[in-house]
Amino acid sequence: MATSDVPAARSTLRILQHLARQRGPVPASAIAAALELPRSTVYRLLGVLQQEGFVLHFPESRRYGIGVAAFELSSGFVRQEPLTRLARPILAALVDELGQSGHLAVLQGRDVLYLVEERAPGRPALVTDVGVRLPSHLTASGRALLATLPPNQLRALFPDRAAFAARSTGDAEHDLGAVKSYGELKRLLDQVRRQGYAAEDGDVTAELASVAVAVRDHSGWPAAGIAVTFARAELAPASWPALADDIRRAAAELSRRIRGTL
């Protein structure tokens, strides 16, 4: 590629990224203004993107939106599981270093979905196996991810008390899950932001605790959470900030690999 082609390629990618962040199709003039690009350049690049199927043109409203080819790229991203592939060696190294089990989870609605689990030698099996879903507000990974969301999105996820499921132990008087209202969740997430990591102590499994840090993607959005789980009797809360520092370094490396900002 010639050097003169690089600015055009960069501008093309910026246009696609901008369109992907919008709630619906937008005028070319709005794209040009938002990206501070000449209108002629925007129209020329939109024409190429339209021809290749990455952009759709809505002539009646004179607006542009994301096309099918861009969706195919995102489908390829899902099929290739790059997040899992990138995270596994990082998580394995973290588990080797700490001697405690770790896992990677992503936010899906009000749940977290576990994508990777690395069990340390001699450690018990966890409920957070690959493919398991748990209520996000009960888990350290989920709390780390929820703490990054804007207030309106958080409120949409937890509109009332019915959204705060507990993890049943079979004994209604001892069900796990201390967070049972939006007010309690807000106070908890404020603490997560202040201290820079999330934790849970017996909210998922009695006598086990976890510490987690969010991994951010290229746009600063939460891509995943990395957590380490351990027996509560082995690591007192006073040692959790140091543990969070180790997890934060792993999260930073994964974020860097997916072109993140952490």
From TrEMBL:
Residues 69-260 form the IclR-ED domain. SMART domains: HTH_ICLR (SM00346). This is Transcriptional regulator, IclR family. InterPro entries: ArsR-like_HTH, GAF-like_dom_sf, HTH_MetabolicPath_Reg, Tscrpt_reg_IclR_C, Tscrpt_reg_IclR_N, WH-like_DNA-bd_sf, WH_DNA-bd_sf. The keyword Phosphoprotein does not apply. The lineage of its organism: Bacteria, Bacillati, Actinomycetota, Actinomycetes, Micrococcales. PROSITE patterns: HTH_ICLR, ICLR_ED. GO terms for molecular function: DNA binding; DNA-binding transcription factor activity. One of its GO terms (biological process) is negative regulation of DNA-templated transcription. It comes from the Bacteria. Keywords: DNA-binding, Transcription, Transcription regulation. Residues 6-68 form the HTH iclR-type domain. The keyword Transcription regulation applies.
